[in-house]
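Lab notes, practical 5.
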Amino acid sequence: MRSKRRPRLFPSLPEQQEFWRHSEPVLRWLERERLVALWMHGAATRAWVVRALTTVSLAGDGWLWYAIIAALPWWGGPTGGSAAARMLCVGTVNLILYKIVKRWIARPRPFRVCEGFRECARSLDEFSFPSGHTLHSVAFSFILTAYYPAFAIFVWPLTLLIAASRIILGLHYPSDVIVGGLIGLTTAAISFNLL
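Output from the prediction step:
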């Protein structure tokens, strides 16, 4: 028995690229963004910058946030369980959104398609848009500082470093990071109206 081939829901990468070829303003914007990313990536010529930002980027892989979520019910006071539950729910929603958008947009990472970029740290998946590290960091930072305002001095600078590290290490374009941050901020803010 032959299996039926499922129809594709989203255009393939070549089809997406063909679509954008006909839009001159988008192409100009993409070129400017590539130049900004290349300029930022220039910091990766220093070994100590790569080592430092790789460590920061690893913190954005999730282990730091998972440790905070696990610790909150025990050490977060009376609202620790609520904060941890909100972070867990928002993280799950964000993971689903992230995977859908990544596969739909299918934007290749800068080091794969642009001359002058190199992969300075491992990437967790194939595509660039949006930045999952930034998405989750912004969402979790927003929730943490809503419950514990004193944490802002620690989590927001870390979140900004994680976002910058993704561009400097050659893994993302600026719009990947900006949109990731906006998605994270939006889902975290909405969670306070729903949960």
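Observations recorded by the TA: The longest helix spans residues 80-105. The domain at 13-194 is CATH 1.10.606.20 (Vanadium-containing Chloroperoxidase; domain 2).
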